[in-house]
Amino acid sequence: MDNICVIGLGYIGLPTSGIFAQAGANVHGVDINEDVVDTLNKGNIHIEEPGLADVIKDAVASGHLTAGTTPKEADVFIIAVPTPVYDDQTANVTYVEKATKNILPYIKKGDTIIVESTIPPRTIYDNVAPILTEAGWDLDNNDLYLSHCPERVIPGKIMTELKENTRIVGGYTEEAAEKAANVYRRVVEGDIFETTALTAEMSKLMENTYRDVNIALANELAKVSEKLNVNAHDVIHLANMHPRVNIHQPGPGVGGHCIAVDPYFIIEKAKDISPLMQAAREINNSMPDFVVSQVDKLTKNISNPKVAVLGLTYKGNVDDVRESPAIDIVFKLTNNKKHYDVYCHDPHVKQQHVPLRLHDMEEALKQADVALVLADHNEYKEMDPSVFADHMKTPVVLDTRNCLPASTGKTLIHPIGNLSGLEPIDA
């Protein structure tokens, strides 16, 4: 199998490196973080993902996977670096551009270059290709085979979905699409569809924009239901009995490296004709304030209330805090005029990965006025609700993930979609 160089060893680049190395390729991973490189070369991993540790350990031990801070010559280059957004919500593609420039000294005629990073429409044509053509490569005549193959996986199932999910490969040319598709056919069990780079870019962005819009509908329903004193969860359950309806569940907002970011990549290219996408982003971005307003209501009669925050990741059972609404909620609480005393707990997050102090469960709940569930970790879903009554000053829980059982005993649990009974706690 070809020699492969993967640029970026994060949540996508590292698992991708692992599955290719597992299949027998010689993979060299590149990351600017020396700690990440050192950790990997010892056969260890720096992120939490089921099944990843064993794959990396075996790949390093077999010699099929190495890591460094600079690229090496290879037959295939896979760029899997972040594409964050600026404060004005436009895409920052400088990481992709820098990664492309960094491989220039190592590429040769006939190499395949694949950008896996999620990117705005036309980035392959307008940003990546010019770097290569200015270096003297004729992409139209396939000196190099340039393509975009966006990842389509979810944290917690990455190792399975990298192999089983369908993949879309968009080539700068038809030949480039075929060449890149053949790279993935060596490890991917799902169908692989070849198309243009622009179509591949838009397909990935629309996948997550679709989800963002539908989550926004559920979140707006939760707000409306709070005003009308109706249980949104019952409404969703009954509405979804219709054979063509599938309303999502409301939550504290949208996070992760895809759904909370990708719609902006389309919006920036067509701001005057994308009002629905923009409205969805505004609704989902408003949810942390909505959550804080409910905590304000609960603690109206309490001075300097203590809030126990359970869960900082953007979803359950992962360690990923990228764009997490939970982090936003914590900062809004700590900067609130009510002077909340916020104690955070998350069994999946390491202290060095968040700018907040972490506490153990008992310490977080001890004498708390309110508990706020922001991630649906199994540890919380399987927890006996009596834990709240045993440790909290007032066992009142705002469950923004609707993952806890109904109120029981002394513990009063308010799901985010059923806030009709939410009243201020007595001081």
From TrEMBL:
Gene Ontology biological process: polysaccharide biosynthetic process
Key words, A-Z: NAD, Oxidoreductase
Source species, domain of life: Bacteria
Pfam families linked to this entry: UDPG_MGDP_dh, UDPG_MGDP_dh_C, UDPG_MGDP_dh_N
An example molecular function term from Gene Ontology annotations: NAD binding
Keyword Translocase: no
Xref: NCBIfam families: NDP-sugDHase
Family named by the database record: Belongs to the UDP-glucose/GDP-mannose dehydrogenase family.
Designated name of the protein: UDP-N-acetyl-D-mannosaminuronic acid dehydrogenase
Taxonomic lineage of the native organism: Bacteria, Bacillati, Bacillota, Bacilli, Bacillales
